[in-house]
Amino acid sequence: xxxxxxxxxxxxxxxxxxxxxxxxxxxxxxxxxxxxxxxxxxxxxxxxxxxxxxxxxxxxxxxxxxxxxxxxxxxxxxxxxxxxxxxxxxxxxxxxxxxxxxxxxxxxxxxxxxxxxxxxxxxxxxxxxxxxxxxxxxxxxxxxxxxxxxxxxxxxxxxxxxxxxxxxxxxxxxxxxxxxxxxxxxxxxxxxxxxxxxxxxxxxxxxxxxxxxxxxxxxxxxxxxxxxxxxxxxxxxxxxxxxxxxxxxxxxxxxxxxxxxxxxxxxxxxxxxxxxxxxxxxxxxxxxxxxxxxxxxxxxxxxxxxxxxxxxxxxxxxxxxxxxxxxxxxxxxxxxxxxxxxxxxxxxxxxxxxxxxxxxxxxxxxxxxxxxxxxxxxxxxxxxxxxxxxxxxxxxxxxxxxxxxxxxxxxxxxxxxxxxxxxxxxxxxxxxxxxxx
Amino acid sequence: xxxxxxxxxxxxxxxxxxxxxxxxxxxxxxxxxxxxxxxxxxxxxxxxxxxxxxxxxxxxxxxxxxxxxxxxxxxxxxxxxxxxxxxxxxxxxxxxxxxxxxxxxxxxxxxxxxxxxxxxxxxxxxxxxxxxxxxxxxxxxxxxxxxxxxxxxxxxxxxxxxxxxxxxxxxxxxxxxxxxxxxxxxxxxxxxxxx
Lengths: 437, 195
What we know:
Order of helices and strands of chain A: HHEEEHEHEHEHEEHHHHHHHHHHH
Strand content of chain A: 5-15%
Structural class of chain A: alpha/beta
Strand order of the largest sheet of chain B: 5-6-7-3-8-9
Structural class of chain B: alpha/beta
Number of helices of chain B: 5
Largest sheet of chain A: 4 strands, mixed
CATH superfamily of the largest domain in chain B: P-loop containing nucleotide triphosphate hydrolases
Oligomer: heterodimer
Helix content of chain A: 55-70%
Distance between the termini of chain B: 24 Å
């Protein structure tokens, strides 16, 4: 009966219902944008202490420096700065790394005798590993560009050895007879066993050197990575986004509703009437937890269906796991109940429903962000997140919808949610304040 | 025959004592007036007798059916008067027909949410709620504060009917004059003590 009363009360405040549904979806969209920004290109300072020319010639290849850098800097945004300015911006965190081209870089590169060096300074903190990987990727792409020039230059020397001609190395010019010329000279000599042995060697050497092109390329890149066409869902329709959108929606909904509904009993001055043997505090809390679970299931399922429709209409690869949706409903109910327990505790501790609702709203975002922080980055956040329902709900939804073998994760997260429901409901039961005339 | 008795009931809120140890007994057929100034402890005593508030000490023995009208409106504002009556009828195990009967008897608007009712109508709704279970003991806490003279007269008639029917009535008020001709006896409470 209390659940019926709460539902009827809610239906009679449609504006509240709309806000309760629209607000978390808006927050989910904003979080998506923030997440997109977080994964955008980091700003990396580029310090040129060598005075890079507009073009660099390496072997027989001519490189447009600016164009080449733009092509290889796909994962970072390079900004040209002076050394002092770059150091200051790195210290301030305005750039996440500084790549320095030291003096003599181009000369060393063009000599093609030893590898020139780029210097990298990376900011401290949790993102340094990711930044280092992205700059390494930049250098990797640059090396791939230069690889052909190096190989072609080396092949030019091989061609000299094969066919002879004029060449130069480290600024010294020379004339090479080559294997072709050697063969001609040998044919002009009186034939005997020793000359024949030399002719055989020249023949073998010519055959071997003819394969140098492929061998050099294989040596430069023993393993090549071939990128296959993308077949999965887009990031905006990914399993993670769907699980977080569901989690955020029902967290806001269940927490605020349960808190407001329980505190509302005090506002209506009916606690005394209910306390007269009609409804125990435990039953009162259970009604609010049931309300949160029911609405989390209904509205969470509606959000999941909306995702499914978008996925079907958009013909997203992989389709929607329709057969898992009934299980998702059960997961939504479990998560809604646990969140309802937290909300009931807030409602029991607050003196009035406005305070309860405000506190519940203020609790939602910290709870969500705690669930977003990877435990590897900040262990305490992981522990705190484990003690709250949001992260368990998200992991449960993700396992239900997308794991190939979900039962282990489902059992673990469901057990967590049941445990949290019991703990928070008991705490709320103990915190329900008696009627005060 | 004693229908309700309280022995040594007291109530403290933190360090403040709202009601010192008090003995009260209500016999069948009597209507008792509980008078005293604001803050004397009348509402606290009635809440304890009604079972809405646990006493800090002491014992209350009460019959199964006790009706209680609290001083401040105590019903759901977003439900109509009939829905409130039906809800509490369900919780008390009373047939819905009784709720409809009381709604008609008290001429409560059927489709208007309780929060939109006049103060007088909300007070009448609370009286109707107290009568849902056909109580043997009726506890009224300032039940006529917002009622016009005709409605006051009607509430006193109802209270008298309960007493005359073998029940007991305890009415808290700080208006002595209203209870002349109704109360069989008067209890006076001051600073949490019965005088």
